[in-house]
Amino acid sequence: MASSAISATPTPSFIANQKDLRRFGFCSTSQFSIHKCKKSAIPIKIMSVMTPQQSERRSATTGSVKTALTLTEKILARASEKPQLSPGENVWVNVDILMTHDVGGPGSIGIFKKEFGENAKVWNREKLLIIPDHYIFTSDERANRNVDILRDFCTEQNIKYFYDIKDLSNFKVNPDYKGVCHVALAQEGHCRPGEVLLGTDSHTCTAGAFGQFATGIGHTDAGFVMGTGKLLLKVPPTLRFVMDGEMPDYLLAKDLILQIIGEISVSGATYKAMEFTGTTVESLTMEERMTLCNMVVEAGGKNGVVPADSTTFKYLEDKTSMGYEPVYSDEKASFLSEYRFDVSKLEPLVAKPHLPDNRALARECKDVKIDRVYIGSCTGGKTEDFLAAAKVFQASGKKVKVPTFLVPATQKVWMDVYTLLVPGSGGKTCSQIFEEAGCDTPASPSCGACLGGPKDIFARMNEPMVCVSTTNRNFPGRMGHSEGQIYLASPYTAAASALTGYVTDPREFLQ
Ligand code: SF4
């Protein structure tokens, strides 16, 4: 692989127009370099802060595969029982897990029944997972009916993993109910290295944190997978993101992925795999790796992937008894491009309305007055996200200046918020710290207002407000009102902003 300063060369296929080209302009704070690989020629001037070399990686196991492949290619080769394959090739892949939920499920079930017959059985009752999570705590009849459709189907098909909720008045009396699918999948041990996991949700890519191929698919594809356990997939080329350097203690993985999306734009990884490596990535917890992979789809990525390591294996220890076989990119694997970041030089970021690549330093937005803060979702509603927010509130000793809504992703996260002690707090739980800071009481676990939804969904933006949110999308109308303005941020930045009523760099409270 050539490591070179890049000169002006032909426009790569993913830069579609002048607007995209503008998005590739570098800001003065860029800590970024790009390495041209033999398959690509990218017209970007380097403002390079070179980083230490990537730490030594374990050699890959290729099984019957003889040519050098990336991690993603290797999973798809094995899943399609082919000794070799190349990006752009269409292959029939055996699916390990198919996940669907209350928004994607009914349509997929309808297609399955239409195409395979009213009395057809799904290909594997233990590999189809059904997780109601989106519009749960609502009186909206159509939303409730969607969950009823899932329940009837699971009964009919004797589905093993249906995380049902029947009593909406108290989620705690529903032991099967989990909450947001992507976090529940990990917590329940359904994410395993080397496997193929598909889901009727664009953020299914979250599971790539476990070193597996995970991507979102539509209803038609899901209906087909329900009947056959297979899907025809085009092999994506891989972009490699190498992040090295010590992570400053005011940054979180959300800042890293906002940095990357800001650099490559919302179309910069269209139908490409995004592989994350480097010493910083190796130091991240599984939940932080999930945040990283969760947002690859905001850059158009087909999937994101972090090579499995001891952190992965330890996380899985008490979650699954099923065997799995991790795979790794071969040393001579061909990457479309390689991007390098020195994480030690990055600063807390936000994505301003109305695109996830509308990156700005949090401190550059200090004059933006906000109306509310939202901490939740598959991106920013995990246990560690709440611990991070609590750390900022505890460090400040102050009260929030705007309504601050907390929506734990799952029932387990909710329990953690009420039971785990926050390090350095003198024995307080997150919930105690949130109460002292004047936050809203943590809500029932679900997707909440991340996707707007029916008007009575908790914390939905029913007015044209300005919100700092730990979610993943800031498109117009995403959290409810079409004129709402959403600033995407890490839990640190969200908590700091709640304390001032303005978009705020968390260093104001953490240093
Ligand atoms: S939390 Fe938001 S982004 Fe995640 S699955 Fe739910 S609606 Fe989608």
In short:
One of its GO terms (molecular function) is 4 iron, 4 sulfur cluster binding. This protein has helices at 18-23, 71-79, 105-116, 141-157, 181-187, 219-228, 253-264, 279-283, 286-294, 310-316, 377-380, 383-396, 411-419, 430-437, 491-500, 507-510, and strands at residues 32-36, 90-94, 97-100, 128-130, 161-162, 196-199, 213-216, 230-234, 238-244, 273-277, 303-305, 337-342, 349-351, 359-361, 372-376, 404-407, 466-469, 485-489.
Distance linking N and C termini: 41 Å
Spatial strand order of the main sheet: 14-13-18-17-15-16
**Overall morphology:** globular
Bound molecules: iron/sulfur cluster
Count of β-strands: 18
Main sheet, how many strands, which sense, barrel? 6 strands, mixed
Can you say what the CATH homologous superfamily of the largest domain is? Answer: Aconitase, domain 3
What is the percent of helical residues? 25-40%
CATH architecture assignment name of the largest domain: 2-Layer Sandwich
* Mean pLDDT score: 90
Give the total of domains: 2
Q: Number of helix segments?
A: 16
CATH fold node name of the largest domain: Aconitase, domain 3
**CATH class categorisation of the largest domain:** Alpha Beta
Supply the helix-strand structural class: alpha/beta
The low-confidence parts are 1-60
Protein name: Aconitase/3-isopropylmalate dehydratase large subunit alpha/beta/alpha domain-containing protein
Pfam family, one: Aconitase
Keywords: 4Fe-4S, Iron, Iron-sulfur, Lyase, Metal-binding
Domain Aconitase/3-isopropylmalate dehydratase large subunit alpha/beta/alpha: 87-359, 363-501
